[in-house]
Fold this protein.
Amino acid sequence: MTDDALIAAAREAAGNSYSPYSNFAVGAALRFADGSVVTGSNIENASYGLALCAETVAVAKAMADGVRGGLEAVAVTGPGIDPITPCGRCRQVLHELAALGGTDPEILCVGPSEVRRTRLSTLLPDAFGPESL
């Protein structure tokens, strides 16, 4: 899957967002070395602290389906005018999944007209993970 197709999958996932409180629909798409793609969208809750980010939903879906290694790339998109990055919690959750396969995935931070590319290790330097225990 190309990066453009991964971005399209993230945008499509954002269409499934349940975000009645913030009206900030986020979509994420994870690409794995075996060619599989897992998507997620944010899910809000009236008890705001119980909301789930799109990236966390996608990671949970991947783990539930037994996809645990080879995370190559993540695309994250939202409705703002600038590209968005994963929040701190999502960076940690993505790190845990990436560590299972020993990868440092490229993160595509997608805006309406710009894509910023970075690595997870750049977004979360000196990450805490399984190797820290």
